[in-house]
Structure formats: C-alpha cells, structure tokens
Amino acid sequence: MPHINILDESTINKIAAGEVVERPVSVIKELVENAIDAGAGNISVEIKGGGIDYIRVTDNGCGIRKEDIPKAFLRHATSKIKCAEDLCDINSLGFRGEALSSVAAIAMVELMTKTKEEVFGYRYRIEGGKELSFDEAGIPNGTTVIVRNLFYNTPARRKFLKSAVTEGGYITELMERLILSHPSVSFKYTLNGNVKLASTGSGDVMSDVYTVFGRDIQRLLVNIEYDSENVRLRGYVGKPELCRGNRNFELFFVNNRSIRSKLLSSATEEAYKPYMMLHRFPFVILYIDIDSSLIDVNVHPAKTEIRFYEEQELYRIVCEAVTAGITKRELIPETVTKAPVNVAPQPVKSVTVPEPFEEKRLEEYTKTVKETALAGSNVPEPVQETLFKEGFLSEEAKETHRIIGQVFDTYWIVEYKDSMYIIDQHAAHEKVLYERFSKQIASNAVTSQLISPPCIMTFSPAQADIINENLEILEQTGFTVEHFGGNDFALSSVPTELFGMSERDYFISVIDGLSEKNVKKPEEIKDRIATMACKAAVKGNMRMSEAEAKALISELLLLDNPYNCPHGRPTIVSYSRSELEKMFKRIV
Ligand code: ADP
Ligand code: MG
Asked: Measuring from atom 25 of ligand 1, which residue has the nearest CA?
C-alpha cells in the first residue's frame, strides 16, 4: 500500500487550474470578469498567437492595494465573499478565488495595478506559482494582467490546444458575448495587432448588436420586455428567417452573466416551434435579471451554468415573452413577394418561407411509432432498410418496382417483390442531392451559377474568420465569396446543382456548420459543406411535382447506399409481406 501524501500548494493549484483554465479563452473570461467586478468602464483585451503566446487585459477599475497583491494569487483568495452565507446572494461574476492562482500556476504572469488612493502602482511577476519580483511602478489607476506562454510547464495540457487561429476564434466569440452582456462597458479587442471589435459602452444594447452582428441581423430583430415579481426580462428575438443550424446564437445573460442553459433554450425553442423547422435554432439575445437568492451560480467551475429554483415559472415567462415577440405584427415574414405579375421572375430568391413540414413529419412519425408500440408486441416494427437487403438497387429492380402513391405529402409507398417500402421524400431528396454534389466535388467538377446582383451578408467576426480561412475551399465547392468590408461578404455564385433554392439560407447553414464542428482536413470541410448545403437546399425547396418525385425515387434507388440521408436518418423503411400478414393475423 503506497503512503498517503498531502499535496503541496503548487501541485494543488495546477490541479485546480485544470478545472478553471481549459484553454486561452478561459483565461480571458476570468480576467475580464475580474475587471468587470472591479467596476471598470473600459476594458482592453489584446491577444497574440491565439492567446497561447500572449494575453493582456487592461482595465480602469478599482485596482488592488499593495498588501493584497500577493494574496490575490493565493488559492481561495477573494474579496467578493467572506463566508458560505454570502454564496446565497452573489452579485459579482467571480467569487471562488481560484482564477489568478490557477492562471499563475500554469503560465508566466505579470500584474500591474494601482488604486486611486495610493500614490504608486505596483508591478508583480509570478511564474508557475513562484513570485519573481514585486516593485513600485508609475502606472495609471486600474489593473493590467499579462499572461504569457500558457501551459509552458504542463506540456501535456498544451498538446490539447488547437491551432492559434482556432483558439483565437474562441476568444473572438467570447468577446462578442462579453460586449453583449455588458452594454455599459466599453471594450476594445485587439487580435495580432489589429483592433477587431470595439464597443462604445453607451449602455445601448442595439448599438452592441450592430458592433457584433452588423446591420443585416440588426434589422431582423424585435425587442421584447417582460416584468414579473422576481424576473425582469429584456432582449431581442430574431425573425424566424434568421434561424441557424446550431445553438450558437441563443444568447442568454442572467444577471449579466453569459450562460448556457437547457431550460432557457427549450423555453425559447418551444416558442419558436410553430415557426421553425426541425433542427433549426432561433437567434435570440435575452437579458434576464432575477433575484440572486433564486439562483445558484455555484454549480460549474467556469460558472457558465446556473441552477434556477423556480424553473417552471421561468420557463413559462421566457416562453410567453418570446412568443409575444415572435407574434408581433412586423415579424410576420413576407411569404409572398409582392412582385407585379408582368415582371420577369427574379433569378435569386431572397425570401425564405419557413415550412411547417418538418414539424408535421415529426408528429406523424412519433404518432406512428407510438401506435405501433401500443398495438401490442406481436406487431412488427418497421424495419429500416440496410445495405444487406438485396435487390432494391439493381437496374432491373428499377424497372419492376411499383410506385403506389404518396401519403401526408411526404411519404412514397413503393411495392417491390415481397415488400412494401416507405420512402421519405424529403430525406430522399437530400440524399440524392448530396450524392450528386459530393461526386462533383470529388472529381473537381463543380460548376457555379452566378447570382446577380450578389447577395451581401453580414457575419459575426468569428464567422468572418471562418469564411476567410476557407475562401479557397468554398470556391472549389462552387461558392464564390468576396470580402465586402467589415464583416460583410458578397456571395456571387453558388453550385449549379443547388441553384434556384434559397442560396442565402444555405450559405449561412454552411458557415454555421463549419463553426460548429472542428473540421480541419480539406476533405472533411468539403463534406461538411456538401452536407449542410444539401440539407438547407432541400428545406428551402419542399414542393415537388409527382413526376419529379418519381424521378427522384428512381435516382435514389440506384445509389450505392440509398438507405440513409447524409445525417444518418433513414430514407427508406420496409414491411415484408409476411410482416403485414402477421399484423392482420393471417399468419401467426
Ligand atoms: P475571484 O474573482 O473569484 O474573487 P480571482 O482569483 O479571480 O478570484 O481574483 C482574486 C482577487 O483579486 C479578487 O477577489 C479581487 O479582489 C482581486 N482582483 C483580481 N483581478 C482584479 C482586477 N482586475 N481589479 C481589481 N481587483 C482584482
Ligand atoms: Mg475572478
């Protein structure tokens, strides 16, 4: 049995650092939160090398008194709470007293600080938890923290970091959220020597929304307000056409803290449900002020999650407030463009009409599954087709399968030999498009169709980075995109294969898709582009004539693997004749 050791302070700090500091963005988060807690009205953040090499955060806050400076770097050293009771009423962002000690344990840190009461400021250097120097310095009121060489003494942790560009991207995204969460603080964010974001600190959220997202998004937002005894809600809800492919733009700020919350997400999504397709997510920015005794912020080391005590009440409030916002008159999308009859049709569709299609499909599907389950155990479940089922693929099969018809505007019933097949038109369409498009990409044979005039779109700085990084690959996959100043881009051509659908929408989907997953290899990126583009293209174009659908089914059946859409959902399910006979008790 090995002896039991009591770990020394520096080891303990390194372990704690593992929880608090996962990557450069976590350091920025902690340092900026400290600056905000110090009452700063101006905060400047500078990074180099994705924050791995260099981070500087300067504020004009209250500063740290001389005798408190070394203390601030001790574990569990905080000026924000004194005892456990204080945990029930936290109004500061920090309170665990772990950030500075954690950062100093795994990096080279320099702190310069001055309070307005003291004549001198001080410069304090600490590396790997060891104090190096502590001197007087002539500096302005406030605090600057510089962090160099993150994880220099924990190489194993450093190995897990991604490229400087990717780490920098995370930081840009955090800065966007910080700007939105603190409209009264003026932020400046400098990346590799270039000022990337600057907010006024005027207190006007709309001007921050403009700084972060640009005018394209700003004009599609509707403001909402809601007051109850314990909750004050303010914010903006995006028109359904602003919908995204992931939850990155469901932004929640509770008592000025940017948090992720399943509860708030599902309340919001519930409100959007009638207006949005499945797997699409709304764009919302919600500020919720709630009595601090009704939440617990001490449930996550990085404090990005919160526990709410009155969950149901909050769910209802958010859902109601968002619904009220969505149903405001001006939000109703312009479904029918008021084009005069004698005007030639526009080559580019810029208005997307949300279709209730996916919803209906889900409902029907759940219903079928439930009914099948209810009908008793001797009823066979529909079988999802797999590659191992033979016969459906051949040219000969194509000749002999019989398309019976369509139900619920969605499913095609096909008879072939001894089975009945049910094909989901939507998934089939997606699959066929994806296969065609992927083949073209693989053989460098993508052709593009010009959009005239080009479609100008505004992205967030983080997304703009992604576009800039992938301009060449986008071009190879048929999207011609040019930088158009600021975070604006002009989309001037799209893959011919997908032309005529909602180009704008699926380009946004493509970029959302690239932001969501960390895809690096060109082939992976191309595949992601193909998947997202086809998914969005199909959603924007649901109607199909019977002849088109039949042609589509025939094409689907000839694919190598017709049975799953690119997302893995089934395209075809089947019932064999004997399964049907069992259901009707013709055989046992
Ligand atoms: P916490 O924020 O949880 O209290 P930290 O380790 O982040 O713990 O900081 C320790 C203490 O150092 C804070 O409680 C605060 O008193 C002081 N401090 C840190 N950063 C600043 C700053 N930028 N301005 C003023 N005081 C600061
Ligand atoms: Mg802190």
From this structure: 63
